[in-house]
Amino acid sequence: ALLFNRLGMPSFVSTLAGLLAVLGMQLYILGSTGSINLPYGSALVDFGQLMVMPKWVSHTLAAIPGLAMLVSGLRTVARRRAANLSTPSVAGLVLRVAVITIGLELIVAYLNQSRGIPWMFGLFVGLVVAMNYALTRTKWGRSMTAVGGNREAARRAGIKVRAIYLSAFALCSLFAALGGVLAAARLASASQQAGTGDVNLNAIAAAVIGGTS
Asked: How confident is the model at residue 169 (pLDDT cuts 50, 70, 90)?
């Protein structure tokens, strides 16, 4: 973030440079063995491999998206009726909610026949929901979208562009670190092979396809 904000270095270049630096630190920390095994029975490994949701928790969480969609849709209908505007069909809304809820509940029931749904997956979904809310429903999220669309226009609109870039870099670094910790917990080890292969290419493709590059 400092290289971009102060020196104008393209973020893609600074990110790749940071990646090379981190890989060098990884080689130094792991040493000649090339890996560090995490002890089985530790809280981190248990969270990554063994801890699953109780069935009632997973079924309750599966019902929440449909309930949230129903409440949001009914509020939209009420606001549009109060403004004498055309409103979407309530029956159609209920049908969509029913289909989504039944589908999610069936998926959860199928997964619960085996080991169940890991808490790690629940953490991932929770982070996705939280970031979606932050990016679409908050002032910070709208500022992030504006800066991504046109930096100069955002600056002229009074948005603190440097602060937005700093927060974006900080969040990306935080989630990358969290992903590394969870991956190590899932594999019960940290090695030089972590993050190799097509992981970086997939991450770049996700940003491009998602329209955030």
From this structure: confident
